[in-house]
Amino acid sequence: xxxxxxxxxxxxxxxxxxxxxxxxxxxxxxxxxxxxxxxxxxxxxxxxxxxxxxxxxxxxxxxxxxxxxxxxxxxxxxxxxxxxxxxxxxxxxxxxxxxxxxxxxxxxxxxxxxxxxxxxxxxxxxxxxxxxxxxxxxxxxxxxxxxxxxxxxxxxxxxxxxxxxxxxxxxxxxxxxxxxxxxxxxxxxxxxxxxxxxxxxxxxxxxxxxxxxxxxxxxxxxxxxxxxxxxxxxxxxxxxxxxxxxxxxxxxxxxxxxxxxxxxxxxxxxxxxxxxxxxxxxxxxx
Length: 286
What we know:
3-stranded antiparallel beta sheet; globular; about 290 residues; 6-stranded antiparallel beta sheet; Jelly Rolls; alpha+beta; Arc Repressor Mutant, subunit A; 2 domains; single chain; about 20% strand
């Protein structure tokens, strides 16, 4: 799976995309594009990948993402024709003019869009209101869609208690297009395979580099080694299993891509500061 640059076609005489998807499963690959994106999951569940952040998602999941932030939603199974539904709004920074978001009245929204470079998950009463408005806006005239989007963004901006930054390290998404495409091919490969075997040789091939050159390049771009990134995805997957299931530590270890329980325990404590059982107990008492 390659992280692809998505070319969006919003149709003639439209400055933003406003679409409803109804599918057996979400089939979009790990991808990025120069537009902002607001995505509401109407119906579905699985894992959400934004940058190198991974989390479970279900109906009601609402995320605002900035330009070139790679993302995808993956289902674990293929369902019925309409078992995966989402409303997706996409717009460019200048869709209302180059300087529109710099005017004083748009200061709060402008700050929100800056934060969305790292991805924002929207929760609470704000999410409930935005979800209802998105469903309503699907079937209104274009002008009302534009005005509705501005109202949605302002609503989110005015409720900082109801949105949380997902990806705190977004340096990779400020790269030149050619570098962004190269590094995201590697992330896409890791996302597709981290619960199984991941090979440095394959990652280097995807980046069109020797293994030695790739390791230097990857560390320079991400500030992490390739092995660190793979381990981080596996640990995040394990965290989700420890919180959301009653599986034994050994099961969590192997389902997360680790081949040795002792090594898993050591890596888990390095990344989280807790043992796997300690981590589970911590969340059970919250």
